[in-house]
Specification:
Elements (H helix, E strand, L loop, with lengths): L3 E2 L14 E6 L2 E8 L6 E4 L10 H4 L2 H4 L2 E4 L9 E2 L8 H15 L4 E7 L2 H7 L6 E9 L10 H7 L4 H6 L4 H8 L11 H10 L2 H13 L2 H8 L9 E6 L8 H9 L4 E6 L11 H11 L5
Parallel strand pairs: 4-5, 4-7, 7-8, 8-9, 9-10
Antiparallel strand pairs: 1-6, 2-3, 3-5
Length: 294
């Protein structure tokens, strides 16, 4: 049996011809967009239930940013579906994967942009903080023992059996209904995001979602959060004012936990504020291209 189960969509054309390739990261077949050139790339890491396509607006601005790299997480998007015996999709496993991914890219330093579960990359980078030049965190899953999961994780994803049953009806239609709650005016997520979720959401991705949430209890989140003070790179923390999943108070919690200079920005929007206002990516580009002494 192959180590990888690759989703059928992996052979499709990439959006708008953004350069992409595949990489072996710690034995895991990883799909990534890789645009532009530069010695210090910007690595962008998506969350649930998204893919590297979340970062297309930044990839298209590689003329300003230099090299921009955005992988699909293992089990998500077009990346391989590793055998659970080899990769259990826990937070610990994803942290180890990101370490291997950066090693496979062979870049000594990088800028990091993360959203939602992209905080797993921040957890990994905190173990080798000297590699981070600048950090942008957008509505991330908090790395804090004090964080309490939102209702969707608490009642549908983290419980055993209930999660498996719930995942049988987790599709484009139900995601559209559920995510109306995360945007001002109860608007659904953009059609392109819903379409790419439908493209990628196979049984293996559903298993990965459940495993990741179930692995991240307070003690695990706290263990990684305790290392955030070691991250002394300049940081920009952006939050949607109407995020119902990870409240805007977590923006200040993260800002206090980081060890370097931090700018914060509360913007209009929900959990995906970059879908609600251009301010998110405009601020990101300005921050990453501005002067820094780090």
């Amino acid at each position: 049996m192959s180590v990888f189960e690759t989703p059928s969509s992996s052979s499709g054309a990439t959006p708008d011809a953004v350069p992409s390739r595949r990489l072996d990261a710690g034995g895991i077949d990883t799909f990534l967009h890789d645009a532009g050139t530069g010695d210090v790339p910007t690595i962008c890491v998506h969350g649930n239930p998204d893919s590297a396509d979340a970062w297309l607006p930044l990839l298209r601005r590689s003329a300003e940013l230099g090299r921009v790299v955005a992988p699909d997480l293992p089990g998500f998007g077009r990346s391989g579906r590793p055998d659970p015996a080899r990769f259990d999709a826990s937070l610990d496993a994803y942290v180890a994967w990101f370490d291997a991914f950066v090693d496979a890219l062979d870049v000594p330093r990088f800028d990091l942009v993360v959203h939602d579960w992209g905080s797993l990359a921040l957890a990994a980078a905190a173990r080798r903080p000297g590699r981070i030049r600048r950090l942008v965190a957008i509505d991330v899953v908090p790395l804090s023992a004090d964080y309490r999961w939102h209702w969707l994780a608490t009642y549908l994803w983290r419980p055993r059996v209930v999660g498996e049953v719930g995942m049988t009806v987790f599709n484009r239609f139900t995601i559209k209904l559920l995510t109306r709650l995360q945007r001002p005016g109860l608007r659904p997520l953009d059609a392109d995001l819903l379409d790419r979720i439908r493209r990628d959401l196979d049984p293996a991705m559903k298993r990965a979602i459940l495993a990741l949430y179930r692995s991240a209890g307070p003690e695990v989140l706290g263990r990684y959060g305790d290392r955030l003070a070691d991250v002394t790179a300049p940081a920009l923390v952006i939050w949607g004012a109407d995020d119902p999943y990870v409240g805007s108070g977590e923006m200040d919690v993260l800002a206090r936990a980081l060890g370097g200079p931090v700018e914060t920005a509360l913007v209009d929007g929900g959990h995906w504020p970059m879908l609600d206002t251009d301010e998110v990516f405009d601020r990101t580009v300005a921050f990453l291209t501005g002067p820094t002494t780090a």
